[in-house]
Amino acid sequence: MFKRTPLERLSTWLETKRMARRERKKRRRHALTCLNARGPATLSPDDIPLMFITHNDLKLMPSFLAHYRKLGVTRFICIDDVSSDGTREYLVAQPDVDVWSSIVRFKEARRGREWRETLFERYGTGRWYVNVDSDEYLVYDGYEERGLKWLIPALERMGARRMLAPMLDMYPVDLERADVEKLEQQAPWEIADHFDATGYAMHAMKRAFSVKGGPRYRKFGTDLEMVKYPVLFWDGECCFGPSIHQPLPYDRNFPAAMGVLLHFKFFADYAEVVDAAAAGGQYFDASAVYVKIKENIANAGGLQLTSDVSVRFTGSRQLLDLGFITRLERA
Question: What are the DSSP E strand ranges found in the chain?
Fold first, then answer.
């Protein structure tokens, strides 16, 4: 665990108390509809559930489900935000996926945080969940051979209730040749196979760690938080509050970085994806980041993300060597 001074711990405790009171007053739960004809599943104590939100990500769905099934996820809980590309129909046909819809959009549900909280209560608190978006792929020390049934007890032995994971934006060397059709046969990190090996800043705040950097910061000067807690024990004390990057209670947000989320936004269809995100206005600050990227693409006549800090992704050993993750046995 990350070592903090008594004064830092007190500051975090006071901030948790302050924000928890505020969030209790603001708490909203949404009416969600399960789209599966069989209805939602009931989780058993042995299940490993994964919660995710998606919008028009059909191209990633086969590899996303395959990746997490291999890690040992037994039940997927999806909130589909009005997909129109076949994502919803594809997921409803999967026997291990519960698909939910809402009459409100992602932004209205505090960028999906209230949906997640509603469904955590629906499926049961006092248990571990994987909590990601449909373009985020969790990797950690030895993930190639060791699944979540090994990972979760390892976290418990270390006294952690959350796994901290910096986000790595992945991109191909040649965007124009990174056809999304290739995703039918290849993992996304075999196509968008590069990331920035350096250029990140990480520091502890009262509420959580802050991680910033990567190709979007390098190329566009964006100030996005590049860290999440994709594996977490959800109980009655938990809520997301103002940010999914800083869930309450805050004192649980300071373990060592034991995982990474490979984040996939950039394939050959990047221009259409950016246009749709900018026009939709559903993301942080009315999708200001995507508006900026769109303007850059228009001015430059295209997009090139590779630089002298780009390296090809080769697996968890590489992330250990580069210092992105901690060896779990020594964490």
Answer: 32-34, 49-54, 75-80, 97-102, 127-133, 136-140, 162-170, 194-196, 200-204, 209-213, 227-234, 259-264, 310-312
In a domain, 34, yes or no: yes
CA 141 – CA 274 distance, rounded (Å): 32
The tens digit of pLDDT for each residue in 175-186 reads 888 999 999 889
- Burial bucket for residue 83 (CB in 10 Å: 0-12, 13-18, 19+): buried
State residue 331's pLDDT score. 45
What is residue 121's three-state secondary structure? helix
| pLDDT above 70: percentage of residues in the chain | 93
Amino acid type, 59? K
Helix (H) or strand (E) holding 91: helix 87-92
Q: Is residue 219 part of a domain?
A: yes
* Residue 274 belongs to domain spanning: 6-330
Question: CB–CB of 316/187 below 8 Å?
Answer: no
What local confidence, expressed as pLDDT, does residue 253 receive? Answer: 96
Distance (Å, whole) CA 291 – CA 273: 11
Q: How many residues does the chain have?
A: 331
The residue with tokens 């779990």 is 328
DSSP state of 253: S
Q: Is residue 204 part of a domain?
A: yes
Cβ neighbours around 300 below 10 Å, total: 10
Which tokens belong to 191? 């196509």
Distance from chain centroid for Cα 106: 15
Residue 108 falls inside a structural domain: yes
Whether 134 and 61 have beta carbons less than 8 Å apart is answered as yes
pTM over 0.90: yes
**What would the pLDDT profile of 217-276 be if each residue is shown by its tens digit?**
998 888 889 999 999 999 999 999 899 999 999 999 999 999 999 999 999 888 777 777
Number of domains forming the structure of the chain: 1
